[in-house]
Specification:
The chain is an alpha/beta fold and 503 residues long. The protein has 20 helices and 16 strands. Helix 4 links the parallel strand 4 and strand 5. Helix 1 crosses helix 2 and helix 19 crosses helix 20. The protein is elongated and about 85 Å long. The chain starts with 9 loop residues before the first strand and ends in an 8-residue tail after the last helix. Bound molecules: nicotinamide-adenine-dinucleotide. Nicotinamide-adenine-dinucleotide (NAD) binds next to helix 1 and helix 4.
Length: 503
């Protein structure tokens, strides 16, 4: 096998569609010779023109030098037949997502390339093992999963099938680096790393919506303002397309033997069946006007109530609650006057459960989420039968302090706690089953999905004990194993160990 650093390293790309073109571009930018092939006559040459146009734009933007791009253009070969891959050191397949098509093509590629040529697939959902099973030299077959658009997305997952040999993985890691990407090594598993770990964000948002605890607009606003996410789950689903994320959710759920942690909701399926795919169809979770602007109800709680002067803080004492009350100009009363709102910083618990164990007056109880960033927005929660006046008085004081308020119905773990703890828990489970290292799990989610923190970093940010406690209470209150804590999280929380402590 030739060193990936060889100046004349030759990469073949089968399939000159959106992904093939992006991979070709980063291959050229990495100084390699790139052979692009497509089954459709003329498609490879047309793709070369597209790649050239993109490189020219980078020259205009002064990101690349004109003479470098001229050299890159000389290193791109358009081929109409698989025979064009004969001298390649690695071939990356990026054709239609169809097992039979890929298996046939892999056999054709194996028939023309050298025995030491590596063959990688860019499949997003097919097991590497199922493609490799028809190949003669299974040790050189692996996954090389790029993200769209390739030149802008730094991450590439290098997927090791059951028979992939270590030197193959190592060479593909080096190839990914030479293409200017950041490779992470992942075991062959449904959804690989990013498409598996990313399920928690969307499906937990959907679950909160299904319970009727909050609207998509409220959930999205809390994820942005309190969780630090660039987009909330509903905005993200509408952007990527429900025609893409519903099938991925379903495949990952069924391939993981219907693990309830990965379950989505009937509403998600309904949108898919109805062809409400999001932005691309003008309607999904939200409606979009012809200019593409979102038509959504406000996530902000409006009230004309007078700000609360004093409240009684009940339940476990939490300095974050005292700070919030102070900043909102609310006096913390020392005893119950029978009329003031009762406030509690709940962790993984809903107001009803808290009332049941504490005997507090549910009509005056206002739950406040003190986790995450509460400087821009606070989430308030009340039990069924609560007096809206207590909530509105607390909300008015929060608004006076410059914060926005999201007022939701009873929900164990509010919005941000639930979604963040679910992301953390699934990331821990991925570490537990050894799909990737803890470091790569965090790196992949930050690069592949733009998360502000990786799943294990979220567990650290919430606190391991707190994350574990939120999951335990969610499981106990809902009776749903969806919320069972990962053993990785449980053990490290119980032992007081850092989250990255190896087994
Ligand atoms: N688009 C994405 O966001 C994305 C992200 C990651 C991975 N992927 C995966 O990458 C692969 C390609 O996706 P895409 O979006 O570029 O698809 P695409 O439809 O844009 O392009 C596929 C290309 O493959 C060609 N093709 C089909 N059969 C062929 C064959 N037997 N030999 C040679 N060429 C053939 C087609 O003519 C077409 O030009 C799929 O496996 C997909 O799952 C896609």
């Amino acid at each position: 096998m030739r060193a990936v650093s060889s100046t004349d390293y030759r990469v073949g790309i089968a399939g000159a569609g959106a992904m093939g073109q992006g991979i070709a571009q980063v291959g050229l930018m990495g100084g390699m010779t790139v052979v692009v092939q497509d089954a459709k006559a003329g498609a490879a040459a047309a793709a070369a023109e597209q790649v050239f146009a993109r490189l020219d734009r980078l020259v205009e933007k002064q990101r690349l030098a004109a003479q470098d791009v001229a050299a890159m253009k000389d290193r791109l070969v358009a081929a109409d037949a698989v025979a064009g891959f004969a001298d390649c050191d690695t071939v990356i397949e990026a054709v239609f997502e169809d097992l039979e098509v890929k298996q046939t093509l892999f056999r054709e590629i194996e028939a023309v390339v050298r025995p030491d040529c590596l063959i990688a697939t860019n499949t997003s959902s097919l097991p590497i093992a199922s493609i490799a099973r028809v190949c003669e030299h299974k040790g050189r077959i692996a996954g090389m999963h790029f993200f769209n658009p390739v030149p802008l997305m730094q991450l590439v997952e290098i997927i090791k099938g059951p028979e992939t040999e270590a030197p193959t993985v190592q060479a593909l890691i080096e190839l990914g680096k030479r293409m200017g990407r950041t490779p992470v090594e992942v075991k062959d598993s449904p959804g690989f790393l990013v498409n598996l770990a990313g399920r928690a964000f969307s499906t937990e948002g959907l679950r909160i919506q299904q319970e009727g605890a909050a609207t998509p607009a409220q959930i999205d606003a809390v994820c942005r303002d309190c969780g630090g996410f660039r987009m909330g789950p509903f905005e993200l689903m509408d952007l990527t397309g429900i025609d893409v994320n519903y099938p991925v959710s379903h495949i990952v759920f069924s391939e993981f033997q219907y693990d309830p942690r990965l379950k989505t909701t009937p509403h998600h399926k309904l949108l898919y069946e109805a062809g409400r795919f999001g932005r691309k169809t003008g309607v999904g979770h939200y409606r979009y006007d012809p200019a593409g602007a979102v038509e959504a109800p406000s996530p902000d709680h409006e009230t004309d109530a007078a700000p609360a002067k004093g409240v009684l803080s009940i339940g476990e004492s939490d300095p974050r609650l005292s700070d919030l009350l102070y900043e909102a100009g609310i006096e913390a009363l020392s005893h119950d006057d029978g009329a003031a709102p009762l406030v509690a910083a709940l962790l993984g618990e809903d107001c009803s459960s808290f009332v049941a164990r504490s005997g507090a007056d549910h009509r005056r109880l206002v739950g406040i989420d003190v986790t995450g960033d509460t400087s821009k927005r606070v989430t308030l929660m009340t039990a069924p039968g609560a007096d809206p006046a207590a909530r509105d008085a607390v909300a008015a004081a929060a608004v006076r302090s410059g914060r926005k308020v999201t007022a939701i119905k009873d929900s164990p773990g509010f919005i941000a706690q639930r979604i963040r703890a679910m992301i953390a828990n699934l990331g821990c489970e991925i570490a537990q089953i050894g799909l990737a290292t803890p470091e790569d799990i965090d790196l992949a989610l930050k690069l592949g999905l733009n998360y502000p923190l990786g799943p294990l970093e979220i567990a650290e940010d919430l606190g391991l004990e707190e994350t574990h406690g939120i999951m335990q209470r969610l499981q106990a209150i809902t009776g749903d194993d969806r919320y069972r804590p990962s053993l990785w999280l449980r053990r490290r929380a119980l032992l007081g160990l850092p989250i990255r402590t190896p087994d």
